[in-house]
Amino acid sequence: MRITDHFQRLLAVLVGVYLSAVTAFAAEYPSHPESPLTAEEFQFARTAWAYFVVNEDPKTGLVASVNNFKSTTLWDEGGYFMALTAAYKLGIISHSEATKRLSRLLASLARLPLYQGKLPNKVYNTATLAMTDYANKPAKAGLGWSALDIMRLISGMLIATRTFPEYQPQAQRLLNLWQLHLLTHKGRFQGIAIRGQAYDHLVQEGRIGYEQYAGRIGVLIGLPVKLAKQYQPILRIQQYRSIILPGDIRTADSHGVSSITTSEPFMLEALEFGWRKDAYLVATAVYQAQKFRYRETGVLTALSEDHIRGKPYFAYNALLMDYTPFVTVTARRKDVSGKRGLSTKASFGWWALMRDDYTELLLQSVKHLQSRRGWYAGLFEKDGSPNKALTLNTNAVVLEALHYKVYGPLFP
Hints:
Layout: H1 5-24, H2 39-55, E1 71-72, H3 74-89, H4 95-111, E2 114-115, E3 119-120, E4 124-125, H5 147-163, H6 168-176, E5 184-185, E6 188-195, E7 199-204, H7 210-220, H8 226-229, E8 235-240, E9 243-248, H9 252-255, E10 260-261, H10 264-273, H11 277-297, E11 305-307, E12 314-321, E13 324-329, E14 341-343, H12 344-354, H13 357-366, E15 370-371, E16 374-380, E17 386-390, H14 392-407
Helix pairs in contact: 2-3, 2-14, 3-4, 3-5, 3-14, 4-6, 5-7, 7-10, 10-11, 10-12, 12-13, 12-14
């Protein structure tokens, strides 16, 4: 049922009261003693790193977003920075290999042609560094920029150069090439939306979880995005049976784009920067909703955005899309719930962060999804068959999660 604007405003006030009250009495964040990887977990890390071995372009140093497809986004190259750092700290690669890869990557990022000469394009060819469309076809004019993708890249750069501080000046020179002030407007992020072939325009970018994750990174580097970092006033809560589902007041009806609540951004923020109170409370609700679904249905549930082997090729597995619970949709919000999957990276991420009986069950259920080229994306819920998509993002998050087990957040 639709909630009227009046009741949405009232609900926003109630959410504020809820957060304030619960925060005041919140238990400590989950604290798991840092511990070395077991022999099996070390093999998990080696499997994840295999993806980066076979998919790095030897000349440019960029890594393909999807196995054997020479295309990438800044979101994924940010994941590569994380994976490289985690692999080095976990003892998978040597200092020499890590720094050689880091040098190639930073040098190529500095050579990327920029959209309108201002900011990085949304997609690039990993071999030629040319701006492309999502089919990896040359797009001389570009597709515009994504503020969220750029923030994830910067997160990776912050983390890598903390471990390898000799590269901080090079990373700073790279950022100086980009007009980062164009990413923000009135305390939030903005990106370029393309309409047809004729023109583009700026739009507010980011919904629940993703916006706050990017906001935490933006504030770290001094961007004026304090509103983007906060869950109030965009957070709403929706009753679902005996639990609540966190959502975003900005829906398709009010803002033209549906809001999706899924695991990914909550896990990434905690794995990279540690917990903070408001994010922890929302993330816990996101996790508990998936655990609740398993108890109610017997279906293991670990939801994230994932590539799919075969059509529709990419989907968001949501615990909430606008007002609809537990639906899987494409980027254009077409319902493809028949392709809903148990996500490998969500299973690893929640396992590292929560470490309870349910996350152990998740890990046991996906640990066979290894190949010589990395981890498969997950299992299709419908029949339990493997989703054999091999992606940078899945393998980067696996390495982030294993790093968290040993050392805690990548950027504490």
